[in-house]
Amino acid sequence: MKLTHRMALIALALSLTFSATQAQTPAAAPGTDVYHVLFAKAAPGQAAALAKELQQVDPKDPMGSHFLLLRHQWGDDWDYCLIQHLGTKASVDVTNAIPNPPPTMAWHTDSYASGPSWGELTKAMMPAASDGKSSSVYVVAVHRAIPGHRGPLEKLLKEPNPNAKTPISTVVFTHLEGGPWNFVELDRYNSWQDLATDAAARVNDPGWSAVRDHSAFHHDTLADRIVPK
To answer: With CB atoms 3.0 to 4.6 Å apart as the test, which of 23, 149, 154, 227 could cross-link to 69 if both were Cys?
Structure first.
C-alpha cells in the first residue's frame, strides 16, 4: 500500500487491547505495532476508482499486503476506512517526486495509531468465510474522551460487554499522531443477522450511558469488508 500523506511520529507509546464478548474470551493482547488509519471520502463519481487506488500495493513494501479496507454502509460521511499495518516502527521518507494522483478523494484524514500484531488483528477482524466471501459486518466507532476521562474511556472500550447476545470480536486502536480522536474501536459481527440480534436485545443496555459519561464525541459507522475478501 502506497502512503503519500505520511506524517512524523513523535512518540510510539503503544497501548492496545484485543477483547471479545463472553462468547469469545481470549486474553487481552498488548499493543506492539504501528498502524496507519485513513478515512477517505470519494470525489463525485470516483468511488470505484478510489477503492481500486486504496488497494494498490507497493511492490517494494514487504508488508504491502497487510491492510484492512472497509466500505461505508451507514453512519459517518467517509466512504472507506483503510487500516494499514506498518510494523513495530514507522518512518517518513522525503523524495523529490511530486505526487499528482487523479482526483479520486474529496477529502481524507491520516493518523498513526498503536495496535496489536498483524496476526492478532487478522484473527480478530479477518476470519476466512467458508464460501470464500466475507460475511462479516463491522461497527467503526471513533471516540475522543472528555478531558481527564481518557483512561476510563479506554478501559470501558476494551472491556467485553457482558450483555452482548452474539459473538463480537473487538480491537481498539490508540491514537499516536494525526486526527482529532483518541480511539478507534472496531467491532466485528459474524453476520448482519448477528448484529441485528444483538442490537435488538440491548435496547436498554447500561453501556450506552456509560460510554457517554466519558466520550466527548463519537461517530459510529456500519461497514463491510472489501479487502481481504
So the answer is: 227
Does residue 102 sit in helix, strand or coil? coil
pLDDT at 20: 30
d(CA 145, CA 8): 23
- Record the pTM: 0.82
Contacts of 204 (CB under 8 A, 6+ apart): none
- Please give the C-alpha separations between residue 72 and each of 24, 37, 79, 175, in angstroms, as whole numbers: 26, 15, 5, 21
Please answer whether residues 138 and 74 qualify as being in contact, where contact means their C-beta atoms are separated by less than 8 angstroms: no
Sign of CA dihedral 195, 199, 200, 205: positive
Task: Give the closest residue to 225 by CA, choosing from 54, 20, 43.
Answer: 54
> Distance between CA 11 and CA 145 in Å, rounded?
20
In the three-class reduction of DSSP (H, G, I as helix; E, B as strand; rest coil), residue 171 is classed as strand
